Automatic annotation (TrEMBL):
Molecular function GO labels: actin filament binding
Lineage: Eukaryota, Metazoa, Cnidaria, Hydrozoa, Hydroidolina
Pfam families, A to Z: Aldolase_II
Name of the protein in question: Class II aldolase/adducin N-terminal domain-containing protein
PANTHER family: ADDUCIN, CLASS II ALDOLASE_ADDUCIN N-TERMINAL DOMAIN-CONTAINING PROTEIN
InterPro entries: Aldolase-II_Adducin_sf, Aldolase_II/adducin_N, Aldolase_II/adducin_N_sf
Source species, domain of life: Eukaryota
Residues in Class II aldolase/adducin N-terminal domain copies: 52-241
Length: 305
């Protein structure tokens, strides 16, 4: 089998804008015009870095048992040489999350879901049905993450799925969670994207959505922020579900303590702090698998359209 990396090197050698993935498909896109060499270089650099961050999040969720088979999905908006409005990066359907690498992502149109960047592989319908609706409702966010983690999903099937103020992690989300109770209406694969629009409305101005009878969705102004919220909400849900299982009375934080804790956490959890969280995981994965992120591949990103 021909390696993708060798094919990419041949692509560069012949100065082509076509890219071939293991002989399966050829994709060709028209590059944007009017960009200086410096602008193109910056777009490629930022696109690659966002790919690295998103790939790290995918592997992290698999490592912590927060993925589900080859389903669930994380996306991030990224600049592109092929689309002025940028693209949403998404893993191609069928890839196990422990195998995700930065170069594997497809980049889809934020309105139509047309593949703009990619290796001839298609995204999952339910993924863009949910995510594009959320991006439309929340243009302020860069990243949307949706999984079916065990404890958050357990809360989602309860008559009262609200996070209780019984732990420090729970207090972080005191005023930043929306609940979609009784709204689940089947798999989100409608062509008109009604489910994505509905979930975007249910999320409102919050950053966490407990999806009734379904799972968890978080958004963030950066990839590390969306990841950090997802990870810690699941930890808060885990504590709550395990506490329920004891059958003993819960010890609730006083309202003023919960409020003060939330404010303190939000003052501490800056973009820089959550970036360190994701970078630490990135370092772990690089030690476990040195081929996870190959810096040489960053120069190939301008040819992935």
């Amino acid at each position: 089998m021909i390696s993708t990396r060798l094919i990419l090197r041949e692509v560069l050698k012949h100065d082509s804008k076509k890219i071939l993935l293991r002989g399966l498909a050829t994709v060709q896109r028209q590059r944007r015009t009017g960009l200086s060499a410096a602008q193109e270089k910056e777009i490629v650099r930022e696109n690659w870095e966002l790919r690295c961050q998103l790939a790290t999040a995918y592997r992290a969720f698999e490592k912590f048992g927060m993925s589900e088979g080859i389903c669930n999905h994380l996306t991030a908006k990224a600049p592109s040489l092929f689309k002025e409005e940028g693209v949403a990066l998404l893993v191609p359907y069928g890839m196990y999350w422990s195998q995700v690498t930065p170069e594997c992502f497809v980049g889809i149109d934020l309105k139509t879901a047309e593949v703009i960047e990619g290796l001839g592989r298609e995204p999952e319908t339910t993924a863009y049905s949910i995510h594009l609706g959320v991006y439309d409702a929340r243009p302020d966010v860069q990243c949307v993450m949706h999984t079916h983690p065990q404890y958050s999903t357990t809360l989602s099937v309860l008559k009262d799925p609200t996070i209780q103020m019984i732990s420090q992690n729970a207090a972080r989300f005191r005023t930043n969670v929306a609940y979609d109770i009784g709204g689940y209406d089947g798999i989100a694969n409608q062509g008109e994207n009604t489910e994505g629009k509905r979930l975007g409305q249910a999320l409102g101005d919050k950053d966490v959505l407990v999806m009734g009878n379904h799972g968890l969705l978080t958004v963030g102004e950066t990839i590390p922020m969306a990841y950090d919220r997802h990870y810690y909400f699941e930890r808060a849900a885990e504590t709550q579900v395990l506490a329920y299982q004891t059958g003993k009375p819960l010890s609730y934080l006083p309202d003023d303590v919960a409020k003060r804790t939330e404010e303190g956490i939000y003052a501490y959890v800056t973009k820089e702090v959550v970036a360190k969280h994701l970078n630490a995981l990135r370092n772990v994965f690089m030690k476990e698998d040195p081929t996870f992120i190959d810096p040489k591949n960053s120069e190939y990103m301008e040819y992935v359209g």
